Hints:
Layout: H1 17-23, E1 54-56, H2 57-62, H3 65-82, E2 84-88, H4 94-108, H5 112-115, E3 127-129, E4 144-151, H6 168-193, H7 200-205, E5 209-217, E6 229-232, E7 238-243, E8 251-255, E9 258-261, E10 269-273, H8 275-280, E11 290-292, E12 300-308, E13 314-315, E14 333-334, H9 335-343
Parallel strand pairs: 1-2
Antiparallel strand pairs: 2-10, 3-4, 4-5, 5-12, 6-11, 7-10, 7-12, 8-9, 8-11, 13-14
Helix pairs in contact: 3-6, 4-6
Keywords: Iron, Metal-binding, Oxidoreductase, Vitamin C
GO molecular function, one term: metal ion binding
Organism: Morella rubra (Chinese bayberry)
Amino acid sequence: xxxxxxxxxxxxxxxxxxxxxxxxxxxxxxxxxxxxxxxxxxxxxxxxxxxxxxxxxxxxxxxxxxxxxxxxxxxxxxxxxxxxxxxxxxxxxxxxxxxxxxxxxxxxxxxxxxxxxxxxxxxxxxxxxxxxxxxxxxxxxxxxxxxxxxxxxxxxxxxxxxxxxxxxxxxxxxxxxxxxxxxxxxxxxxxxxxxxxxxxxxxxxxxxxxxxxxxxxxxxxxxxxxxxxxxxxxxxxxxxxxxxxxxxxxxxxxxxxxxxxxxxxxxxxxxxxxxxxxxxxxxxxxxxxxxxxxxxxxxxxxxxxxxxxxxxxxxxxxxxxxxxxxxxxxxxxxxxxxxxxxxxxxxxxxxxxxxxxxxxxxxx
Length: 364
């Protein structure tokens, strides 16, 4: 039985970071100031795009045999060693990128009372507000969020789809259809990189669950004291991130216990492996812990798509990836139960995956 959802603390005007920034541009309220061990080290320059794994989607779908093989190897390395990569030549029209950024930014720039017509209800992560907040003394992220369930239709809450800005809903639907196609294809190639049948994930997932979340990070006078988004891994199978043009560099990933800043390649999409793929691959491909930091002068917009199996699916490591040298690391569980567990706990690195981990002592 799925755990009963907790009720997040209602975040009002006083905790809306855009309103705080307007009212007190040089002040950071105590509720946002992190303990000294959690504060970010702000690197003077981001990593070079060349340091980040890059997968050329064109070579996967239309490349010759040699190019295809090279990209499959690159994809496997990215998933195994990094847990994320950037996709270029993904075939999504750049005009759609511009349109989704325009409506997302347009929504965040609406008056507060207009945005509050779409509140994030207790026990959910859909709507406008701060997600993953469960106590009055919990530190808040320097971020405003707006999240929507997209597919399948039954997870949508039509009351939360805004009428402003114009064409918001049509744009989100058009963008989500294209990202869904990309995720389907990437999972096919990820399966092939593991030596599995290419349709194994598509057949297993059923009607995949898809959600979109828009994050807006206003400038912060003391970016060294706050986090834009707390460290976490994603509960999805794949996560697709588009960063708004002109945004500050904010994404950081934990690589070899060092927070590495990621500068997205223009017009590329940043993909990260979620907990679901880590479980299915028995830890061969790992979900990556990541966070967002803020900037003193520049804002940041990101548009994130989460792609996951049907809530009805029973999940566990695939038999092909379990043997005496790589014993089973995760128990079988219902994906809907894990999703409920994920959204009813605060973001704490990869702690939510403890839900599925088998204690190594149990293996002895």
